[in-house]
Design brief:
Distance between the termini: 82 Å
CATH superfamily of the largest domain: PPM-type phosphatase domain
Strand order of the largest sheet: 4-5-6-7-11-10
CATH architecture of the largest domain: 4-Layer Sandwich
CATH topology of the largest domain: Phosphatase 2c, domain 1
Structural class: alpha+beta
Radius of gyration: 30 Å
Number of helices: 6
Order of helices and strands: EEHEEEHHEEEEEEEHEEHHEEE
Shape: elongated
């Protein structure tokens, strides 16, 4: 609106900013064009002791408003898209793991691209409804990386959530999951490992089933590292899947490590072309004997990250399931002290 059309005395109080010195002598109101609807308005004020806005200044205001309006509209659109993306991403991000029914769970995840938040690796822990019921832990790897792999990851996780009532029968659960992937539009496949976990007094029992996935590793109290004797075919390729389940008992201070091949296949070293490998992983895990689950995960993740350096890598996911050391409270000199025993 040209300044000659506006009576400054009719300007509402909210349009005059705090600190404006002197009465308003001239006003220009210019719309900020947006995407379909105005993004706002640009209001220019000039004191009465200055000359009124001329035609060239009003033209400059329109040019500035056009650019400012486009920038504001783009920022608002980006904010809306970011909000939508964050909502959709919430179910794709790895969950925060915690202690469940007396058993420690911890996880660590790193995507192939540090600028991305989701990828093809995933893990989940589904607590049992009561302490006497098994908790289902899952760690898997979808073929590929980036958002496309993350979409299938989300589908697998939601399908497993729906199949929780059948979690006691790993083979049946894997067959149903396999059928779901075969009937989907995705051509990708996945590998995963299932762990049903139940604590009985000082022993934590695990039922471990691998579906084409790297085998879980067990670290004992003395630092001995064992490989769980489980095997199985990958998911989403063959019309039927076959698998065997390993039964493992953890004593206090012992851990089971689930990991994706992004750990063992991470390339680094002096020349950047040597894989981290199974032997290096076993040696690192042996040093974690007796550690809490969180410490085990942090140690493995740190060593792999140092090995990779600035090199390119695949998605990396690690989960530790640890039977915690029991704590007995005793009175010492009138004070309560904790004593850890195996």
């Amino acid at each position: 609106v040209p300044s000659r059309w506006i009576d400054p005395s009719a300007l509402p109080e909210w349009a005059v900013p705090e600190g404006f010195d002197g009465p308003v002598g001239s006003v220009v109101v210019t719309p900020l064009p947006g995407h379909g609807v105005p993004a706002g308005a640009l209001i220019l004020l000039r004191r009465s002791d200055h000359a009124a806005f001329d035609a060239s200044e009003e033209s400059f205001a329109r040019v500035f408003a056009a650019r400012a309006g486009a920038a504001l509209s783009a920022a608002r659109l980006y904010m809306e898209q970011t909000s939508i993306t964050a909502t959709l991403m919430a179910d794709l991000l790895p969950p925060m793991l915690r202690r469940v029914h007396g058993v420690e769970f911890a996880g660590s995840y790193r995507t192939a691209q540090d600028t991305e938040r989701v990828g093809g690796d995933f893990y989940d822990v589904h607590p049992g409804a009561a302490p006497g019921e098994k908790t289902l832990a899952v760690l898997g790897d979808v073929c590929g990386k980036g958002l496309e792999a993350a979409v299938l990851t989300g589908k697998i996780r939601s399908t497993l959530q729906a199949l929780l009532p059948l979690a006691g029968d790993h083979q049946h659960l894997l067959r149903l999951l396999n059928g779901t992937l075969l009937n989907s539009r995705h051509t990708r496949f996945a590998t995963l490992v299932l762990a049903s976990v139940l604590r009985r007094e000082n022993t934590t029992h695990l039922s471990l089933t691998s579906a084409g996935h790297p085998l879980p590793l067990i670290v004992r109290q003395d630092g001995t590292v064992e490989e769980a004797r489980t095997s199985g075919t990958l998911i989403g390729v063959l019309p039927d899947v076959k698998s065997t389940t390993a039964e493992v008992d953890l004593r206090p201070g012992e851990s089971c490590l689930l990991f994706t091949d992004g750990v063992t296949e991470a390339r680094g070293g002096p020349l950047g072309d040597v894989m981290f490998g199974d032997d290096r992983l076993r040696a690192a895990l042996a040093e974690c004997a007796g550690m809490p689950a969180e410490a085990v995960v942090e140690r493995i993740h740190m060593l792999v990250a140092e090995w990779i350096g600035e090199n390119r890598h695949d998605d990396i996911a690690v989960m530790a399931i640890t039977a915690p050391r029991t704590t007995h409270l005793t009175a010492v000199d009138g004070r309560t002290a904790g004593r850890y025993t195996a």
